[in-house]
Amino acid sequence: MKTMTTCALAGVLLFATSAPMALAAFSVGESAYTKRLETAVLQEPAPLAKTVGKIGYARALKVEEVRGSWLLVSEGPVRGWVFSGNLAENKPSEKTSLGDVPLLASETSATAAARPLAPTTAGYGARHGLESANADLEWLVQKSNQQTPDKVTAYLQAEKKGEFSQ
Hints:
Blueprint: H1 2-18, E1 31-34, E2 38-42, E3 51-56, E4 60-67, E5 70-75, E6 78-83, E7 87-88, H2 110-114, H3 119-127, H4 133-145, H5 149-159
Antiparallel strand pairs: 1-4, 1-7, 2-3, 4-5, 5-6
């Protein structure tokens, strides 16, 4: 099952990184919204530029200039460049599709985060032939924990992906 999961994960990753990125069309004077839990605001429109600030999830930014895939934005005293792939034209929802489960870690507890899969979830997996889903998830988390931001940045840079695509 792990081999199948690995192949599926590799396929999804390959598709996601090789497909042309559909970037939203932003205009000067309009708002753009952050879609990452923490969006880095850079000193210049370059992936490795100095970070001058960080802005939280679903925050409105004023677009001051558009330069290719980069936007000069501001929010209060924070002003700088953000890669347009990190922004959305519409404000993202601050809730997940899990009903009352909040998206932001600050709005939940460590107890909730450490809780194993609910019996309902395990039952669903058993009914659909996914008994090893928990083991597969643990394996995926273990592999994910082996990655570092520096490794991801080096990969994106070497493969000219994301903000390094120009």
